Amino acid sequence: MSASREKQNRQAAAGQTDPKTAREAQQRREEKRTNLLYGVIAAAVLIAVIVSLVWRSDFIPKITTAATIDGEKYTAAEVDYYYQTAYRNFVSNSQYSYFLSYLGLNTGATLKSQPINSTAASMLGIELPGADDADTEAGTDALASTGMTWHDYFLNEALDNMSVIQAALKAAEAEGFQYPAGVQAQYDDNMAALKSVAAASGISVSQYLKANFGMGVTEKVYGEQLMRVLRYSAYADAYQNSLTYSDSELEETYNADRNTYDHVSYEVVSISGAAESTADEDGNTVEPTEEDSAAALEAAQDAAEAILDGFRSGGDLEELAEENDGTYSQNENGSYSAGSVMSEWLYDDARKPGDTGTVADGTVQYVLVFHDRFRDENPTIDIRHILVPLGTGSIAEGEEGYEDEQAQLKADAHAKAEELLAQWQAGEATEDSFAALAMKESTDGSKYDGGLYTEVYQGQMVTEFNDWCFDAARQPGDTGVVDTQYGAHVMYFSGVNLSRWQSQAASNLRNEAYTAWEEDLVKDVTVQRSESGLKLIG
Q1: How high does pLDDT run on average in the chain?
Q2: CA 35 → CA 7, 125, 157, distances in Å?
């Protein structure tokens, strides 16, 4: 996966991380990189403003040194920018936001008073001072008493991110790296968005920044650090985009971890073996007894065996499920899930088409019919597009005239997209000229890469967009206009790329290479902390 596509795709929600496996540890490193590169921008313009009426001087944070990285000094205001960004990215990250109370993080209290508990430390993959392996294995809260707070965690994140950015920018300068035009375009758009959000909140840009990033973060400080992050992003993208892998390297990666890349097709019936609670004559809930629970589990096991026997005797699995209070489903493209008993059965190397069996996961019983195991050989594609969004209507859904107004908004967007396509066709009509037009006219985040999405796989995009891209007759250079729920898209088909499984393997290899590259960048970097400045952070 290219770095540009990685950037676009990872803005979407990620699944919950289980920190017990090496692959999930790698995912955490990737998430950190993603937040460093891209989340910092969104945090500045999307977070609701809560303005404190308590006056504090912002002069001291602007002049007081808080950290020195390889001889380059950073003020408390500059460190606060990265600190607040790390914090806001974390609490808004869909992976963690649901679990904040579980992690022991109270967003309504000062972070300096909140210790990191053992649950949070495990999920984040961090090692806290004063805790040994025995504490961790015992599952105690010893980690919470070691003195590391959430403030410490986000400060460490900030300084780590600053070290990476500084080292990368120095490397970029040394090699004469030329930043793409998208860097300045994204900077200009973000600064404009900053002013727009502040105005919409009824406050000045200065007030907005102080409320969200700390008393010393002025528009100048914010703009300087924003540009550093964007330049780092471009340089890191260029590095990842330069990485290519041979067919043999991709095959070797696949063979080393086939479960990650293979899919399975199967049928399954699930039967709940959990005893239900009841209500007494007064309406009070009565929890099931141990005997009730044992009886319910045995009944589910008997039902699973009856379904399996009936299927093996020629019965219809879906009908058997209905007869025995089971839930039937069919999956033609299942993926491996570590720790799932169902996945372990389906991905057993000995599994053959037509195999059947039952497995249990807690109180749930599963009847399984295995059909096939395969890797996705379908090609991915590269596409450029220009998004013309739907206008904002004035009639609320459900009110008279709503449907007519929406139809007109869609027609207007389509007409604008057709105009842009005609404009492109009247010019050079090259892929480069399309990219330039996308950067100027598109409202999609891909505009800064010339509207480019790379290694798009079947089913990834909304239906209309997907169907146009994967039309069997599609050829490089094809153009058109596609209407979706998001508006009208001016399309440019760049061409076919790696197969889906190869794309996944290449993405994993690039991520591993990026991690090593980043570690090499900062291996000799020294960070000196100035407590007089750091006490102004947070």
Answers
A1: 86
A2: 10, 16, 11
